[in-house]
Amino acid sequence: MTGTFRQEKISKIKVGVLGSTGIVGQQFVRMLNGHPWFETAALAASPAAAGRRYGDAVDWMLSGGCPSPAGRILLCRPTGSDLRRSGVHVVFSALPASVAGEMEEDLSGSGFRVFTNAGAFRMHPGVPVVIPEVNPDHLGLISGRESGEGFIVANANCSTTGLVLALKPLEGFGIRSLQVATFQALSGAGRSGLPALRAFDNVIPLIPGEEEKMSRETNRILGRREGGSITPADIEITATCCRVPVRDGHLEAVTAELEGDVDLSRIKRAFHDYKALPQRLRLPSAPRRPLIIRGESDRPQPALDRLAGTPRSARGMAVSIGRLSLRGRRLRFVLLVHNTIRGAAGTSLLNAEMAAARGLLDEGPSEGFRKEEPCGS
Amino acid sequence: MTGTFRQEKISKIKVGVLGSTGIVGQQFVRMLNGHPWFETAALAASPAAAGRRYGDAVDWMLSGGCPSPAGRILLCRPTGSDLRRSGVHVVFSALPASVAGEMEEDLSGSGFRVFTNAGAFRMHPGVPVVIPEVNPDHLGLISGRESGEGFIVANANCSTTGLVLALKPLEGFGIRSLQVATFQALSGAGRSGLPALRAFDNVIPLIPGEEEKMSRETNRILGRREGGSITPADIEITATCCRVPVRDGHLEAVTAELEGDVDLSRIKRAFHDYKALPQRLRLPSAPRRPLIIRGESDRPQPALDRLAGTPRSARGMAVSIGRLSLRGRRLRFVLLVHNTIRGAAGTSLLNAEMAAARGLLDEGPSEGFRKEEPCGS
Amino acid sequence: MTGTFRQEKISKIKVGVLGSTGIVGQQFVRMLNGHPWFETAALAASPAAAGRRYGDAVDWMLSGGCPSPAGRILLCRPTGSDLRRSGVHVVFSALPASVAGEMEEDLSGSGFRVFTNAGAFRMHPGVPVVIPEVNPDHLGLISGRESGEGFIVANANCSTTGLVLALKPLEGFGIRSLQVATFQALSGAGRSGLPALRAFDNVIPLIPGEEEKMSRETNRILGRREGGSITPADIEITATCCRVPVRDGHLEAVTAELEGDVDLSRIKRAFHDYKALPQRLRLPSAPRRPLIIRGESDRPQPALDRLAGTPRSARGMAVSIGRLSLRGRRLRFVLLVHNTIRGAAGTSLLNAEMAAARGLLDEGPSEGFRKEEPCGS
Amino acid sequence: MTGTFRQEKISKIKVGVLGSTGIVGQQFVRMLNGHPWFETAALAASPAAAGRRYGDAVDWMLSGGCPSPAGRILLCRPTGSDLRRSGVHVVFSALPASVAGEMEEDLSGSGFRVFTNAGAFRMHPGVPVVIPEVNPDHLGLISGRESGEGFIVANANCSTTGLVLALKPLEGFGIRSLQVATFQALSGAGRSGLPALRAFDNVIPLIPGEEEKMSRETNRILGRREGGSITPADIEITATCCRVPVRDGHLEAVTAELEGDVDLSRIKRAFHDYKALPQRLRLPSAPRRPLIIRGESDRPQPALDRLAGTPRSARGMAVSIGRLSLRGRRLRFVLLVHNTIRGAAGTSLLNAEMAAARGLLDEGPSEGFRKEEPCGS
């Protein structure tokens, strides 16, 4: 079926990126470069930058340099009219929290399909927070919409994404409570989020809002969808989220209290064998294995494992797990997730790939929508 | 009483440092410089270095430079005869694990009072592991010895010391189990323990043996002494110990399950009011408050708080605690301990100060001991 | 004479600090704490913060914590009326460049003695840029003023200060040209000057304006004063100024072309023997030796040597020099200067101490000045 | 011609790597993975490790993980018999200096073609030190050998390689003298060359032997070959080599005194237009442009530019140049070279590609050689 889907793709779907100059925006641009299904047609930034070449305006921070085709694109404003002028009706949003809410609502309201990394709507009943390997059925929240109507699909925050991917295969064993301590990378604070003197030779034991998000979003994603609503899971989560002087890659030390007795080999197997819809659909950004079990006693490590994931198009999309031990019903492990790839742009992109594979992006915006704001306005 | 003790100190007690050129050895040298009760009379290193000036042989790594008086001392061998020749019968040991066991046993066997930071004897029934604020009564394990007999007093490993200091005031609330994730500094791995490329831009989620030590030593120190033996406490501890790129200061994220209901204000008060024997005796290296509660939401931080402790002679001797929260019976907090001061040399020194204040260092070695290996041999 | 001066100091001189919450402001606060001649009477910050306790408002970043007495001071506005209300007519300025010019001019115009670390007036003909060990005679630029008139005395920028201190003893050998590469610390960019992601695992080969300053200020400070004007030296300086991931301490690799033949031992002696007015006057913040020659082949190093300087009140005030070699007339050496102490607050303070010792701070502001802007306005 | 050469390559040349588990060894393994001309047939390490799978024995430190095919190879001893058993007669050497001399001499003496990164023979009259873009004619030193005879081709040390690549296009302007300060990365010190505590928050202003190498090797590589000997250039070089806390990428601040007048635009053009033999031959690891001029005022930076070089197979093979300025005849610029790619394994590989393209690797070892030590011994 995947093959069929691919062969039908005669022309690529034109997409835009909002907030394209930030760290997550740059990951979107990097991952969309040469993408088999999507074509980067619009890059939006703050209105002040509109009209400049992306390559000139961006303060590129990822290794390997800004992809040349993207570098030549002229920045547009993050408005419906500008995006539509570029032929775009699918957008990825890496907007800062302060503006994401209003802009994304406007865009989805006028027919755009928005895949957002921003947190504004993660608790909104009409917006699914999706990790394709975990809760693809939550996309059902938007399936009832009329043809041509826009929608918003959110991904979870970075540390939550890693955690939930590791929890999913454990669901069958019953998870009563979780204690999590995170070692979060600098890039999670954004391009200029943290002054060097603060971060250097230091651990900062607070990431505002993060602990609440981990608890709330984890339970929502692991929740059960019944029709158009989600009943959240009720795992008690105690998280302590800390910033450490590491460029990329969030490491998390997790202790989980399970509900019943189980032996460690079954847990290892559950992690190792875990595959889900994106793997079956062979989505372009899906890692062959979403979870990689490290047998070495001192792994995963950010410097070595943050780019885990094969094939090359899925680098940074696999979560690494190590230091598994079980005492009674208390399971301890350490996980590592690349915070701006799997924890942000990558999952958003995977969400869009899954939506495309399911035909949710095929149709153009509805007539009504088109009339409302004519091309060329 | 303290005053009395001090006034009697007409001459200082001559002390030696074993393993004096390592990081912990350097902290001993630094803290002993200008000490009101102790005089550094011997600095020992590997036999190959014996005879060189300490200042020339040491690769000094602490800020502020090697103290001049210590720098002029000629290194001796870590043997009883060399130490005795310098008039020393009290030694601080910062020996590497590989040689500590045999050397310390030999020295204590021939009458030396050994205050050791090494782990060799921490589980030995005749060796108390003491944190003066927590279990000074464990010194009782050595009090039965005959006059002139040597002994070994150990301090706990670095991360355990911070943890136990924070747990002591909680004892009254009943601690059922603990989940701890540690963010441990580079200096804990020793002067050349960790290659730069391993540590840089990385978190290493394994510190060999550390998790077992935290569990074992914590329960021993919090154990009850009955005569000459210790009945350990039985707190279930799940620790995940990680190395982070920070020079000094171990941060620990702790979740404790308490036995009964309690409100947070009582816990805060217990931390804040906590004072113990070293404070009452006004030992020279005792911090006025062993625990410092930080009210800010993002503290403690290694870069800002690792040197906590007043007066100046107790810098780095206080443990900082922050991020206190309580949900049901689950208490969460973050603590910070300076690993080579309070977590190593400083507690060893405080142990010796307490032993001195109790008269355990006053007497010289016994006649028998003196005859055995005559001065000048 | 020094002694005499000190004995006369029955009451301390009340001083204020402008821009007191930044990194350099904090160094001023730290160094003024317990100062034998000066008393911190006013701490100014942006008007928005006025009225808050310094200890609550400051984001303290130096190890050891904010000094308690300073912490209790209520912040005032950086205006003449506020400062005067605190009885202050001597101020230290750590103002950001953007506002320093206007404020400092206003204050000096209305009678304040301003010792500034800001760059605004470093090329102003009426403002001496002084390093007390190098060009104390440049203070003459302000000596002609009428009694009660204010003035501005600047110190040089951080990397220049280290360089000029090392060049002064070489003046006798004739310096034709200089090539300098700097390895500058993060704290030089201010409290939030550099985002962590920029600084981390990186070298940034540009510090805007720094190379020009090094050339211009070096020649001005080494220039000859004739009456009220300075004839700058004309050393050709090629500087490449880079930021490296080090917290404190600017290291500089210097190659100097000398005018005549000389042997290395004479140069070493010139460095080693170098003492100047502050040492003779025994100013409180003067290091016993302003230059410390390191004989080891791999020194100075920021981590080990940035706090060089004795006595304790002069920690960080000595410049360390190493790796001296001479080939023909080309002299190569490496120097290290603590950028926020000797390179900023410390030299400013030393300037004020020298001015005090010379009686330039004794007199109160003139009557005219007082009338102009009455107390209580 | 290149095309012809490629089409003839029906089977790949089997190659081995000596010292394959170190950092440079790992770069060889990484760059040889999927190489169009060479096939990794033998990986040698210390005899103790022989027989273990490379993937199990190596402490892999490069991002992206150990290539699977290499991971499956069983380590052999670095001896002629072991290598020959694998069908190898071309070897890349990343041997540590202490053993490189003897081993490489033995191997070349018994017919192996050795491309070495070790420094043992860089000043040996019969061993060319080659950077393919700079002095391919120096390969002439080995062309006179008999068929089947072995040889050694060295590449220069890491910081020299970057410098010489930047100097080559300047040769025409006449270079009288150079002042260089280097900011060298941690990986240059090897996998465990530098303890973390030494490197962290520090600059170490000494890299033993490096300054002499820069001077000696630069002049040798820029020297003129006449028959079988090289007359070195005689540029006076004053280098100050420092280690900074950066993972990869050596940055160098260079001041060059030119012999005649020139304008900056000509120099820029010379840099920009520079292409040489590897580019013309389109060697697989040759970057399209060996020098990349950065127009931004704050580039190159290690974090952003160390992987410069297109196509993908040449990532890290281009040297970036920025901050160009000229005052009189004094040219200043900053360059950046990836020390373990272009500065080590990459140039060695490029040397082998050039040798292959010239037919120097085609012939098997001579009969005599084969007889001497029969296969299967």
Question: How would you summarize this macromolecular structure in one to three sentences?
Answer:
Four copies of one chain form a homotetramer. Chain A is of the alpha/beta class and 377 residues long. Helix content of chain A is 31%, strand content 20%.
Strand content of chain A: 15-25%
Shape of chain A: globular
Order of helices and strands of chain A: HEHEHHHEHEHEHEHHEEEEHHEHEEHH
Physical arrangement of strands within the biggest beta sheet of chain A? 9-6-10-13-12-11
- How many distinct beta strands of chain A? 13
* Biggest sheet features of chain A: 6 strands, mixed
Structural class label of chain A: alpha/beta
**Helix share, percent of chain A:** 25-40%
Mean pLDDT metric of chain A = 91
In terms of quaternary structure, what is this?
Answer: homotetramer
Low-confidence segments of chain A, given as residue ranges, are 1-9, 366-377
Q: Terminal Cα separation of chain A, in Å? A: 40 Å
- Count of discrete alpha- or pi-helical segments spanning 4 or more residues of chain A: 15
Radius of gyration of chain A: 20 Å
Largest protein-protein interface: C-D, 35 and 36 residues
